[in-house]
Design a protein that fits this description.
Layout lengths: L5 H13 L1 E3 H8 L3 H13 L4 E3 L2 E3 L9 H6 L2 H14 L5 E4 L3 H10 L5 E5 L2 H8 L4 E5 L3 E3 L4 E3 L1 H7 L4 E7 L2 E2 L4 E4 L2 H12 L1 E7 L11 E5 L5 E4 L5 H9 L3 E4 L2
Helix pairs in contact: 2-3, 5-6, 6-7, 8-9
Length: 254
């Protein structure tokens, strides 16, 4: 078994705490060249201790989600592009439900200037963002607040959502596998997301390109159940084919 070098042990510790490491920041931190860091990351990935992504690597967990702030920072520019594209899909004088997630937070920022919008959410962060908008009415579910991300989960959240029939569901997912399955980590959160999908006339999936590089254990649903898939980069060819076959409108936000 290949032994880890001291710097690689430190890199692994940073990745475990932060969820993601970047080549340039590690090179600066350790005062070595980016090429040296890339070699370290490649070796750690070969040992399956990290998972390579563009510009760095992530700590691969199939059962536990990354820290919320780390998820906020990952693909942040792409999430903003996604949010603006979603805002163009949602007209004024409509109703939406948004679930938990860092991408749906960005969508909330992009929706603040809509007029006569009703927004239902189980996401305290989304509720706070939209509560500052003059022409948006906000409805928040009851239930238990998950301290890690201020998401509201549980049966009470599901019960309230089922009282509404909205124009658009705007949902995020932690991972999308090559078969088009939408996945997450917490089965209680998944039950809320499933209720959101059921209560919407049109479903909008928001997910950045990194969701194709992650895994999660709990199934929300399938890509074929979605009307619009908004992402920040062209997805794998198999996903593109699934979208065509299921008449899912694929929107790559520029």
């Amino acid at each position: 078994m290949q032994r880890l070098q001291p710097r690689q042990i430190d890199i692994l510790d940073i990745a475990r705490k932060e969820g993601r490491v970047e080549v340039e920041s590690l090179a600066s931190h350790f005062d070595v060249t980016p090429q040296t860091i890339r070699k370290d990351l490649n070796e750690l990935c070969d040992m399956e201790k990290l998972q390579r992504v563009h510009g760095g690597a992530i700590f691969p967990s199939n059962t536990v989600n990354l820290a919320y702030q780390s998820r906020r920072d990952m693909a942040s520019e792409g999430k903003m592009r996604i949010a603006h594209a979603v805002a163009e899909l949602v007209p004024n004088n409509s109703s939406v439900i948004l679930n938990i997630g860092t991408t749906t937070e960005q969508v909330a920022y992009a929706l603040r200037h809509h007029v006569e919008l009703m927004a239902i959410t189980n996401n305290l962060n989304v509720a706070l963002i939209l509560s500052e908008a003059e022409n948006v009415e906000v409805v928040i579910t009851g239930g238990m607040v998950r301290k890690s991300d201020r998401g509201i989960i549980g049966a009470a959240a599901v019960d309230l959502i089922r009282q509404f029939k909205v124009d658009f569901a705007i949902i995020g997912a932690s991972a999308i596998d090559e078969e088009g399955e939408l996945l997450d980590f917490d089965y209680r959160e998944v039950r809320v997301a499933q209720a959101i999908i059921e209560q919407a006339r049109k479903k909008i999936l928001v997910a950045d390109h990194m969701k194709f590089q992650r895994r999660a254990p709990v199934q929300i649903g399938h890509l074929s159940e979605i009307d619009y898939f908004v992402t920040d980069a062209a997805p794998p060819k198999k996903i593109e084919r699934l979208c065509r076959e299921a008449n899912v409108e694929l929107v790559v936000a520029k």
